[in-house]
């Protein structure tokens, strides 16, 4: 998933262009935060949070979980962000 401003390109089994509809930070800090992306027929919720297991030099330590659905199958994907 590539997030740029208020849009995202999500590729898993097929590519979807999604629009950011809601950005929900935790009440006391910027992390974790939930990003809700939608477009007609597609949606994805991305949870971003600090993680010691994701290390990319000075770019930070952020893990991402993406909850989406492809066809009738709910899918949870996890990874690290740059």
Key attributes of the depicted protein:
82 residues; mainly beta; 7 strands; globular
Describe this structure as you would to a colleague.
The protein is an all-beta fold. A seven-stranded antiparallel beta sheet has the order 1-2-3-4-5-6-7, with no helix packed on it. It is globular and about 35 Å long. It is 0% helix and 65% strand. The protein has strands at residues 2-4, 7-11, 15-25, 33-39, 42-50, 62-70, 73-81. The protein is built from no helices and seven strands.
Instruction: Give me the side-by-side strand order of the main sheet.
Output: 1-2-3-4-5-6-7
Count of strand segments? 7
Query: What is the terminal separation in angstroms?
Result: 11 Å
The number of helices is 0
Radius of gyration: 13 Å
User: What ranges have pLDDT less than 50 throughout 5 or more consecutive residues?
Assistant: none
Largest sheet: 7 strands, antiparallel
